[in-house]
């Protein structure tokens, strides 16, 4: 909610702006403090000021209240810092996309400012400078739920620029909500990648002393600088403790918890490596090594692809028009990859209209198998492409990429059922 | 007291509700549960500065281990899930305390994050909100200001410290606390206890606060003229409050004398250098030294010219050495030795001379040494040296931990003022004037009113009634008084309890159900009221009621038995009774009571004795 007209008028008359020190006189008391931004959940008549004690309090502006500006906000220059490069260390590029992987808190106003430059970042995370030389830039400042195909393409191009400029690895700090989609998209777009690109996030924001941002970032730097691995990865906490992080293949990783530090899991695959926060890197699975590919940027994407989750009673009528408005659709079917008989009929029609229809499982774990039940066989006959043990989100991103590479439906089918970036595998091992 | 002391109080009272930001229960358990390992790092402020208290903690490079008992902590305490909305009941109780202290509630309450990185909060901050300001309480004709009332979350409780790892249990983390801060309005140690007791009784009047050891904790802010504000944090024993104040006054005035003496002597600020004195003590029989050396440690020393007799004076009043040792301990060593206490602790006169020789100082020159792993010993001695230099400024502002004997020990520098920023995960709470008016119209009975009513309704003395309320016995007292035992209950709380404590018998075991049991037995005539103190003593020592009554040989005698016992005593002293007549009643009370005490009420014994003597004389 915004300020009420009355509050706005009072602030305007006083000429008060955020950061100014105000004297707020009530009927029988007065308070002095710094005007804070209006809180979205605050009462429209209430202004929030920060008292000298550090506490914020809300004051209702009514006819008895008189507001006077006592001091203007002063712009404070941040001391400039300059990090020295160490020729013996590898160089790692850091490309920010939003969120705050490192930040400063201004306790005077309570504002949290991101560390934007490489120098700021090193001042906030000084451990990094003993691991690698850092080149940092901010590409986007957006919430990860606002990422889209165009943003993925822009990011892929920025990564290629850094690699061409000699970066030994690239770290992409990323909001965690859609980090798995971005890592999948980069995996397909950066064909022949010969060094590590590591997406890293935090489940606790970097303004907090308990943030996982710093440990994850330092672990990502260590992995980029020292590990003999290439490909697109996601690095996040292994458990709720600050002891180690796991490195996941970019096409195999999914956010599986809304808030825990160890929200990211490899699904139908073993994580690639474990990075101890004490410094060691241990590989857990086979992985591509450095310097074995030739980087080709394939950055065309078809945004007209949808992801639908099947549910009992799903009405084909409602979804037909939606599917027809897209060039491809990925379904997360039940069990081995099933939908209702009515939905099969509708999907057959959509496929014959030329829409690429792909099937994954909403179980996430395990693979689609359309041979076992009659419904599955009907889906095969309807032209639906089974996606094996690919995650529904990865299948979505892959279909976006595939449909931008070819218009030939049999080539689409071939690419979707081939393992291009570790997203598919013929065998799944027994867990411990 | 020679110096005029100034004291302000901060009272932290646990509330008997759910936790503040989740629905976990708010009591403590003896279960460890799964374990988490975490680290905290100080956050950088806009100016690239870290708060000085936060920095002091970070320098200790602490690792934290958290025990998470499943029934008493969820993902919120583990900092694995955002906080839920603030507990409505806890908020209501805080508003109630604000109303009872005539405080002005803010129009909208905003929770803040107050940076604390000693590990006691998994987040690295404590969530706290300023709820009301500008209140007061009147007592003994004096007005004590209530500067602020905050609602905040309690910290995790420390289980143990091993090396650089501290273990906490998360059951206490998140329990709602009302923090009430008074103005610096107290100038007498006993007054501090009285004010604390009064505030405690106001909190209890809400009827939804926790009772028992550790559920109410006091911070004392103490200063003397020329001294500095020192915060003694987390005092649990109200009775010790005056002692902490007195001891702090002694400590501060001692430090001022040390400063004056340093200036009078023209002593220079010490600046090292630190020297390796291991060779001088290689074959020392001192346990501390030999144990450190056998583990590959070293002995470091610094000379402190001009500090002779100030680290520990002959009369024991100047104790800068203790302060230096406390600073050194923050770096993980057991302590230091200084020349005012040497030779001693197994260190000989010859070894002292050797250290002096090594440090190149005169035969009576002051020094300090520290023996441990060099990784700890060097920074520890540097801290001691820093503290020695600070003596030129008199009393440093600092936070001190209370010790059970009424003394204190250095904990950390006082936190800076502004290490707070908004807790954006918790909604602000707008307080309407209507809500406050409704609260004010339904206030619980205040302590003074309650005491007056007790005196009137239950016929006890007003003085007694006030003491009962002040000491927190009001609820149980009223229950027992309603059962017809007002006088006995008052005597039990006000005479028996202090007498037992004086004997060294703790009354902690006498919880409400135990006391209720004893009074029920008394009402049933299981024993006479004279026996109650003895019964209570036994129960305080852990016996159950029945065992206590049996072991005391209590158990009522019927009137025939009692008469027979009295008759036997009269018969034994027949000549004496005949000679004295009714005058024998007094002298015979003692032998009769020796046999009937606790079995028959005292008044009944004296009536029985009179009637039996009359009967004997009439024969």
Folded structure, characterized:
- The complex is a heterodimer of chains A (432) and B (619).
- Chain A is an alpha/beta fold and 432 residues long.
- Chain A folds into three domains: 5-71, SH3 type barrels (Roll); 91-297, Rossmann fold (3-Layer(aba) Sandwich), CATH 3.40.50.1170; 305-416, Rossmann fold, CATH 3.40.50.
- Chain A has ten helices and 23 strands.
- Chain A has helices spanning 5-14, 118-124, 149-164, 179-189, 213-226, 316-324, 341-352, 374-381, 392-405, 409-416, and strands spanning 21-25, 30-35, 46-50, 56-60, 66-71, 91-96, 103-106, 111-114, 133-138, 169-173, 190-191, 196-200, 231-237, 244-249, 253-255, 264-266, 273-276, 281-283, 296-297, 305-309, 328-333, 356-361, 385-386.
- In chain A, strand 17 (273-276) and strand 18 form a beta hairpin.
- In chain A, helix 4 runs parallel beside helix 9 and helix 7 runs parallel beside helix 8 (374-381).
- Chain A is globular, with a radius of gyration of 26 Å.
- In chain B, strand 12 and strand 13 (230-235) form a beta hairpin.
- By secondary structure, chain B is of the alpha+beta class.
- At the A-B interface, strand 4, strand 7 and strand 8 of A face strand 2, strand 5, strand 6, strand 7 and strand 20 of B.
- Strand 4 of chain A pairs antiparallel with strand 5 (108-109) of chain B.
């Amino acid at each position: 909610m915004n300020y009420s007209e009355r509050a706005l008028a009072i602030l305007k008359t006083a000429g008060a702006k955020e950061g100014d020190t105000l004297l707020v006189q009530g009927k029988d008391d007065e308070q002095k403090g710094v005007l804070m931004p209006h809180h979205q959940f605050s009462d429209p008549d209430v202004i929030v000021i920060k008292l000298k004690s550090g506490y914020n309090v809300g004051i209702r502006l009514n006819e008895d209240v008189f507001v006077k500006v006592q001091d203007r906000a002063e712009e404070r220059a941040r001391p400039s810092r300059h990090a020295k490069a160490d020729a013996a260390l590898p160089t790692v590029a850091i490309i920010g996309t939003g969120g705050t992987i490192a930040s400063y808190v201004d306790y005077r106003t309570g504002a949290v400012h991101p560390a934007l430059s490489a120098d700021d970042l090193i001042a906030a995370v000084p451990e990094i400078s003993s691991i690698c030389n850092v080149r940092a830039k901010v590409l986007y400042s957006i919430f990860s739920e606002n990422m889209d195909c165009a943003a993925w393409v822009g990011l892929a191009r920025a990564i290629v620029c850094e690699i061409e400029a000699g970066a030994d690895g690239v770290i992409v700090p990323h909001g965690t909500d859609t980090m798995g989609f971005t890592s999948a998209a980069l995996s397909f777009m950066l064909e022949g990648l010969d060094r590590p690109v590591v997406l890293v996030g935090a489940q606790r924001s970097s303004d907090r002393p308990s943030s996982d941002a710093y440990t994850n970032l330092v672990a990502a730097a260590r992995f980029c600088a020292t590990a003999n691995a290439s490909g697109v990865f996601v690095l996040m906490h292994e458990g709720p403790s600050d002891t180690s992080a796991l490195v996941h293949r970019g096409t195999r990783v999914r956010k599986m918890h809304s808030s825990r530090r160890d929200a990211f899991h490899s699904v139908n695959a073993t994580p690639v490596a474990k990075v101890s926060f004490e410094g060691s890197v241990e590989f857990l699975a086979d992985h591509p090594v450095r310097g074995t590919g030739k980087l080709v940027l394939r950055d065309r994407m078809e945004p007209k692809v949808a992801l639908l989750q099947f549910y009992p009673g799903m009405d084909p009528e409602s979804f037909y028009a939606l599917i027809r408005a897209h060039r491809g659709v990925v379904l997360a079917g039940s069990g081995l990859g099933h939908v209702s008989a009515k939905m099969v009929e509708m999907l057959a029609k959509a496929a014959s209209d030329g829409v690429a229809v792909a099937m994954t499982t909403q179980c996430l774990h395990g693979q689609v198998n359309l041979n076992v039940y009659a419904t599955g066989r009907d889906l095969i006959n309807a032209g639906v492409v089974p996606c094996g043990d690919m995650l529904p989100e990865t299948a979505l991103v892959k279909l976006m990429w595939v449909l931008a590479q070819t218009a030939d439906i049999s080539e689409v089918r071939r690419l979707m059922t081939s393992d291009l970036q570790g997203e598919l595998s013929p065998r799944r091992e027994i867990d411990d | 007291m020679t110096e005029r002391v100034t004291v302000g109080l901060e009272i932290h009272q646990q509330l008997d509700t759910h936790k503040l930001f989740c629905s976990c229960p708010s009591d403590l358990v003896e279960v460890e549960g799964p374990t988490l390992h975490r680290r905290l790092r100080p956050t950088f402020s806009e100016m690239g500065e870290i708060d000085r208290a936060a920095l002091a903690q970070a320098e200790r490079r602490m690792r934290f281990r958290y025990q998470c008992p499943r029934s008493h902590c969820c993902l919120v305490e583990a900092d694995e899930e955002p906080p839920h909305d603030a507990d409505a009941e806890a908020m209501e109780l805080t508003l109630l305390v604000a109303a009872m202290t005539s405080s002005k509630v803010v129009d909208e309450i905003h929770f803040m994050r107050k940076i604390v990185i000693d590990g006691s909060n998994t987040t690295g901050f404590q969530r706290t909100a300023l709820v009301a300001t500008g209140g007061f309480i009147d007592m003994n004709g004096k007005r004590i200001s209530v500067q602020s009332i905050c609602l905040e979350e309690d910290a995790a409780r420390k289980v143990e410290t091993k090396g650089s790892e501290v273990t906490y249990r998360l059951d206490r983390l998140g329990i709602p606390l009302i923090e009430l801060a008074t103005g610096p309005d107290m100038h007498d140690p006993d007054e501090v206890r009285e004010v604390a007791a009064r505030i405690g009784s106001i909190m209890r009047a809400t009827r939804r606060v926790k009772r028992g050891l550790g559920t109410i904790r006091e911070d004392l802010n103490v200063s003397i003229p020329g001294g500095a504000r020192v915060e003694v944090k987390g005092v649990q024993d109200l009775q010790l409050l005056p002692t902490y104040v007195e001891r702090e006054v002694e400590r501060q005035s001692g430090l001022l004398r040390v400063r004056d003496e340093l200036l009078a002597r023209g002593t220079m600020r010490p600046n090292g250098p630190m020297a390796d004195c291991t060779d001088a003590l290689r074959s020392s029989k001192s346990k501390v030294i030999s144990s450190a050396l056998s583990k590959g440690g070293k002995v470091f020393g610094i000379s402190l010219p001009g500090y002779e007799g100030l680290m520990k004076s002959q009369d024991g009043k100047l104790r800068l050495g203790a302060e230096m040792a406390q600073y050194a301990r923050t770096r993980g060593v057991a302590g230091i030795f200084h020349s005012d206490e040497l030779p001693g602790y197994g260190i000989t006169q010859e070894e002292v001379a050797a250290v002096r020789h090594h440090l190149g100082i005169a035969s009576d020159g002051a020094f300090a040494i520290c023996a441990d792993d060099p990784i700890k010993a060097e920074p520890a001695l540097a801290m001691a040296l820093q503290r020695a230099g600070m003596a030129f400024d008199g009393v440093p502002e600092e936070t001190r931990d209370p010790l059970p004997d009424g003394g204190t020990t250095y904990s950390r520098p006082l936190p800076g003022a502004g290490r707070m920023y908004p807790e954006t995960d918790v909604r602000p709470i707008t307080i309407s004037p209507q809500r406050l008016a409704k609260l004010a119209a339904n206030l619980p009975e205040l302590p003074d009113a309650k005491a007056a009513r007790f005196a009137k309704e239950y016929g006890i003395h007003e003085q007694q009634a006030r003491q009962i309320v002040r000491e927190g016995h009001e609820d149980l007292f009223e229950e027992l008084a309603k059962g017809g035992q007002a006088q006995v209950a008052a005597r039990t709380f006000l005479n028996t309890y202090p007498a037992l404590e004086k004997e060294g018998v703790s009354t902690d075991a006498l919880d409400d159900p135990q006391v209720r049991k004893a009074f029920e037995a008394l009402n049933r005539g299981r024993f006479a009221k004279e026996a109650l103190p003895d019964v209570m003593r036994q129960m305080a020592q852990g016996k159950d009621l029945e065992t206590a009554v049996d072991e005391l040989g209590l158990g009522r005698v019927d009137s025939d038995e009692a008469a027979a016992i009295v008759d036997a005593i009269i018969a034994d002293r027949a000549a004496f009774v005949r000679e004295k007549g009714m005058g024998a009643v007094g002298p015979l009370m003692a032998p009769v009571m020796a046999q009937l005490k606790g079995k028959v009420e005292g008044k009944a014994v004296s009536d029985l004795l009179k009637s039996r003597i009359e009967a004997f004389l009439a024969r």
